[in-house]
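in:
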């Protein structure tokens, strides 16, 4: 049973770590592209900013959902 606890803890840590790295990479790429596009066409900056914030929320939501699933796995395993 201790091996199951160890594997669940390792899997939860990997879910959170990979989700955090992917979210950071996604937001940094999106922010860079936003700055490029707003520099090229300043008149579209407001429209692009709205879309950028919506996408940032979706990227963060994916990470938060992954964290919630990891916590769910940990709690359901360790409470047995």
């Amino acid at each position: 049973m201790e091996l199951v606890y160890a594997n669940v803890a390792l899997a939860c840590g990997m879910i959170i770590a990979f989700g955090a790295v992917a979210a950071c990479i996604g937001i940094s790429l999106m922010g860079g592209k936003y700055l490029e596009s707003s520099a090229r066409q300043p008149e579209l900056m407001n429209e692009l900013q709205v879309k950028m914030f919506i996408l940032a929320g979706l990227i963060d939501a994916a990470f938060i959902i992954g964290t919630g699933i990891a916590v769910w796995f940990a709690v359901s395993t360790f409470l047995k």
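note: The chain has a mean pLDDT of 94.
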